[in-house]
């Protein structure tokens, strides 16, 4: 296979050989010995919205038992509030939603967008979003600023235009997108787009950028947002002694100085065990309760009580107009109602996280060992092997495989697929897994997140090691195959 000179040539060569890569991947699945009955029924993560993990036994039992009882839903929400307060303190509150994205939507509209009511024209407001991964979630609710980013989300999602991510933009709201110091935004992929490469992010330099841009936009500034993850590939390698990412902590301090809200999107993260509003200083942290936590599909907003009041009011949960301490009724965002069964599963999941966190952390330890063992065997040149960084995250119940450093020495590295590749079907590290009978995971921007749950855990949530090893081994083999057709190996 010809070794390309330039990046775009490598991706052009991969595009031309997709059929060959798929054929080799199917053959490799047989060589690995993935059982036929397992194919298409297990995968590299149970944290994908479109294919969530099966519920644990204890979660199912709690849901089934509660479903047979007559329980006011406001009582279930109050039980969630009590669990949150028992961990974070009485100054924090909570509100469940149908999804994490619903939580983002109601939070940004409540805290960042200007009022629609009143005489005269509306003013505009702006919030600052870091230029990091998954920007179409936490950074898509306003019109992008500066204008060079105005088309940054055009090709993301299943649908374009007003029915796609553009349609999420809220009333007179702008998003100021801030590049991170130490990050690289190189162009990669068959769908050739800039990708955030974040292992060298400098928290202090990034805060300088944030402060500089905040001063420019101060008259319109409404708040800040970032992800809540804690791994090198997401830009959060540098942490304090408690393991809190320094960039999140410094951003929380700065937001307090300005008396503006700081909202963290911790979709693929755990309450209690993972990203904490107490340690980061965030006003709001939003979780997808099905991705890592193990509840049914739903979201959870946790934040400081005073900030939570308008959010809970917008959800119809904060109390009736005639004066009650809780309600479960109609309001602007009643469409984000999670429903009884989801509430029941959230309560059980939170109890386990508070009282028995090892139920979720032990499978991560077991998976990390398997990932390290299998990637140690990868058949690649030494300079590529040395550029692979493996780390684990209890917050995301995941093992991160980051390989952006394979590009650091002026040579072509392991192919990096953009998030636009995922939506266009040209992310070979995802589509190739499907050819092997393995449901893929988040594997773009030079970063791969692997987590337990999708057919790789038993009914109690513990790792089935031989099944998990099949999935990881398939990924390793697919990387080898792809590198061959990229012209990186013999």
Automatic annotation (TrEMBL):
InterPro entries: PyrdxlP-dep_Trfase, PyrdxlP-dep_Trfase_major
Protein name according to UniProt: Uncharacterized protein
Organism: Sporolituus thermophilus DSM 23256
Lineage: Bacteria, Bacillati, Bacillota, Negativicutes, Selenomonadales
